[in-house]
Design goal:
Two copies of one chain form a homodimer. Chain A is of the alpha/beta class. Helices cover about 45% and strands about 15% of the residues of chain A. Chain A folds into three domains: about 45 residues, Orthogonal Bundle (434 Repressor (Amino-terminal Domain)), CATH 1.10.260; about 120 residues, Rossmann fold (3-Layer(aba) Sandwich); about 140 residues, Response regulator (Rossmann fold, 3-Layer(aba) Sandwich). Chain A is built from 13 helices and twelve strands. Chain A has a six-stranded parallel β-sheet with strand order 2-1-3-4-5-11, sandwiched between helices. In chain A, strands 7-6-8-9-10-12 form a six-stranded mixed β-sheet, with helices on both faces. In chain A, strand 8, helix 11 and strand 9 form a beta-alpha-beta unit. The longest helix of chain A is centred in the N-terminal third of the chain and has 16 residues. The radius of gyration of chain A is 25 Å and the shape is elongated. The interface between A and B is large, with 49 and 49 residues. Chain A binds a DNA duplex through helix 2 and helix 4.
Chain lengths: ~325, ~325
DNA sequence: TTCATAAATGAAACGGGTTTCAAAAGAATG
DNA sequence: CATTCTTTTGAAACCCGTTTCATTTATGAA
């Protein structure tokens, strides 16, 4: 690989001048610039990014840490972040940490050691939280919120409201026997959804019926079986996310339980897949795009949320589709 | 950030000794090692990865370039590659190039400039192919194959056989009016699938009916409409991939066309989603895991496929599920 | 105890751009 | 034409681990 010194020799100038031509930091005489440019062209010179970022202490890179690359919610988020970052001349490095604290730690350390310009973390791990504060690069936490706020920026949705909306919609669609498949409690994102559901039920004299479940498909399948056994009367299900909702549907379908005629179903997240499967899934929409774009903005703003304080909440909304009864048929 | 020289001072040794303790390259006296370790601990020292890789010319990183992070086929592939790489002490950097040649180029250049130890590219872009040869880092092309083979290793599946299997299965299930939704021709992966289908039809006296379609969901939706219009007699559909198959199903479902009773459907890829949706999708299984793991092996083997030549083909198989008639009901 | 080997250790160079600082060249003023 | 202020430009230091190479220290044999 040709280096900057080779180019300099070829062009008959010093390495410093070559650097200046490349970066446009200082004006260079037209004839010399010309020679340098030609030498670069001829030798196919590409500046070594490692050397550059060693000095600059910036790598034009934003780290993105997600718990699972298999969950479409996170890949969608990563995709927007990617697009937003590229628009601003940054690239992202995606770390897929398989829900594993050690891998999260390792990713963080690597990013720090690699002079990343910031990190966007989608982690519900409270233990990691504390470590986050030790790094001096900007950190933004998305899709999570903690009591002990160590980091400057938390971006999350109004999950509580989402839980309420789901319960409200099912009730409005005629359900009287709601069951909530809630995510593991202790995780804010899961808990808030549940509490929204719970409060709505309490306020409207509905008995709250709950089943607990991990966020993935496999867990959704087995939990649904359990749910049907424990609550045979059920006529409305609030799932903790869309992937689980899809697995719920799968079981119902297998048992020939009609959706939405016998049981109505509401998911959470509104991933693309929700409107792609048949029947289309009624779900709580999260503004994933807006959240992702904002995360990048905040990182490039040194990790600070300007005026709003240390956290920013995004609104959710209910998208009625085919797994609940439409207005017309009510 | 504390540097190795700070640690050295604190421990009363030279930076060289600290480096040796960290890397275990040369034995260090027990008492000094002890002091160094304590100093590292106290100062929370983490070696700067950039400086390290500048010297080592290796970053323990494998680049993975995929055309779309939204297509589950590629995220699944990335996930295995990630796991396989981590097992061997490497990390991956995922580049999501949005099917864009310029972004592919940029990704490649960045990887080269970042001292990546190898690149795994899932690209059907022939133009990129040629450039690939210019880089001296190991490159493995997955899910593609070219006439002009510039790179040392191509990993791909027996797509042709997949096309045959799909046609054969539909025929065995009683279909007489097959239509193939083929991917954009010119791409080997798409063309081979189609040719398998075509040859089977010719050999068995079936008229070949074809419709062309991009690999994504939106294209699948509109193409299905067109298909039904052009071939109202259709009773079996071979889709170019699972995402398209899902969109086909969506349209059929919307039109109240029963699957598999009126029309049977075969996808391609066997992404997880295929068995997660309802009804479960009959599809051609690609050994994504094996391919991903092999890709990592080859990279760490300097990008060479040892004996087998410059390419390795993986077998496909048909997985009968719910969108075609099962043996029992035939 | 002494000389020869082997092992541990530090000083300095290295990798490859970038930037500082001072010298050199050019432009402007008197 | 001399003098001063600008603008270019190159030499060298820098970023920070790693490694070479020579020196020091330890080990073993004589």
């Amino acid at each position: 690989m040709a280096g900057i010194r080779d180019v300099a020799r070829q062009a008959g100038v010093s390495p410093a001048t070559v650097s200046r031509v490349i970066n446009g930091t200082t004006p260079v005489a037209a004839d010399k610039r010309e020679r340098v440019l030609r030498a670069i062209e001829e030798m196919g010179f590409v500046p070594n990014e490692v050397a550059r970022s060693l000095f600059k202490k910036s790598s034009k890179t934003i780290g993105v840490i997600i718990p699972s690359i298999r969950n479409p919610y996170f890949t969608q988020l990563a995709d927007v972040i990617d697009a937003a970052a590229k628009e601003r001349g940054y690239r992202i490095v995606l770390y897929n940490v398989h829900h594993d604290l050690d891998q999260e730690r390792a990713a963080l350390q690597m990013l720090a050691a690699a002079n990343a310009d910031g990190v966007i973390v989608a982690s519900n791990n409270e233990a990691l939280q504390e470590e986050l504060a030790h790094y001096q690069m900007p950190v933004v936490v998305v899709d999570a919120l903690f009591q002990t706020r160590q980091v400057n920026a938390y971006l999350y949705c109004d999950y509580y409201q989402g839980g309420r909306l789901a319960a409200e919609h099912l009730t409005a669609c005629g359900c009287r026997n709601l069951v909530c498949i809630r995510g593991v409690q202790g995780l804010y994102t899961a808990q808030a959804r549940y509490e929204g559901y719970r409060d709505y039920c309490r306020e409207h004299g509905l008995t709250e019926q709950v089943v607990e479940c991990d966020y993935d498909f496999e867990a959704g399948l087995s939990m649904t079986e359990e749910l049907l056994e424990r609550f045979p009367q059920v006529d409305g299900i609030v799932a903790c996310n869309d992937m689980v909702a899809i697995s719920v549907y799968k079981i119902l379908h297998k048992r020939n339980i009609a959706v939405p005629d016998q049981i109505q179903l509401v998911g959470f997240d509104d991933i693309h897949l929700a409107s792609l499967i048949s029947p289309e899934l009624t779900t709580i929409h999260q503004p994933i795009d807006a959240m992702g774009r904002r995360a990048v903005e905040v990182i490039l703003n040194e990790g600070h949320l300007p005026k709003e304080g240390r956290r920013q909440s995004f609104p959710v909304s209910l998208v009625p589709r085919e797994t609940t009864r439409s207005k017309e048929s009510r």
